[in-house]
Design a protein that fits this description.
6 strands; Rossmann fold; six-stranded mixed β-sheet; 205 residues; 32% helix; alpha/beta
Length: 205
């Protein structure tokens, strides 16, 4: 049987409007974000997601609330996971962007996969290594229908893994979506992955 993996990036959060970093800052959704998430749930029901899907969700508030609104339609019980939290910005978690930019460690020229803005933050390599066990888990599991609610940076890396990227490929290409973006992948029994769509907002009318 083919495996279906659908990812949802959490919808509008307060940090999108208040000039603060997201990361591990535990921001709630705005009222608009809750409405967006509800609309995604209605749209996902038309994609068949109420039929036998397993939902995995980041345990940060904005992802959990996105799942909550989606489940007003789908009625799934989310499996909460720290592995699919957003990137950890360490001392910069949830801070105002002007504070963040004024206190972060200066980066060198060019892309550095091991750069951390603060000593206790995650680098790209750290984030990749955190997500990889989760990706392997879902691909090797017997679950045929998987719905994942998470965050922009995290889902960008997870999507790259699903499409067969290695970590060093991030130097030349990566995925990026807006809040509320939905992606769908099909994995055939031989492990070949088809991206049916990536970071779309078909639910938006």
């Amino acid at each position: 049987m083919n495996k279906t993996v659908i990812t949802v990036q959490h919808t509008e959060s307060e940090h999108h409007l208040n000039g603060h970093a997201g990361a591990w800052g535990n921001w709630p959704l705005t009222e608009k974000g809750r409405k967006q998430a509800f609309d995604i749930g209605v749209w996902l029901s038309k994609e068949g997601c109420a039929d036998g899907f397993v939902m995995y969700c980041s345990d940060l508030a904005r992802a959990e609330q996105t799942a909550e609104e989606i489940n007003k339609t789908l009625h799934l019980t989310p499996v909460m996971s720290e592995l699919i939290r957003e990137v950890n910005a360490g001392a910069g978690n949830g801070k105002p962007w002007d504070w963040f930019d004024g206190h972060k460690i200066k980066s060198g020229s060019g892309y550095d996969p091991d750069y951390r803005p603060f000593p206790d933050a995650e680098s790209d390599r750290d984030l990749w290594n955190r997500i990889m066990p989760f990706c392997k888990q879902i691909l090797e599991s017997d679950e045929e229908k998987i719905l994942i609610v998470s965050h922009g940076c995290t889902l960008g890396f997870l999507q790259a893994m699903l499409m067969g990227f290695e970590f060093d490929d991030l130097r030349r290409a990566r995925f990026s979506g807006r809040s509320g973006s939905v992606s769908r992948f099909t994995v055939d029994p031989d492990g070949r992955v088809t991206a049916n769509y990536i970071n779309q907002r078909q639910w938006e009318t």
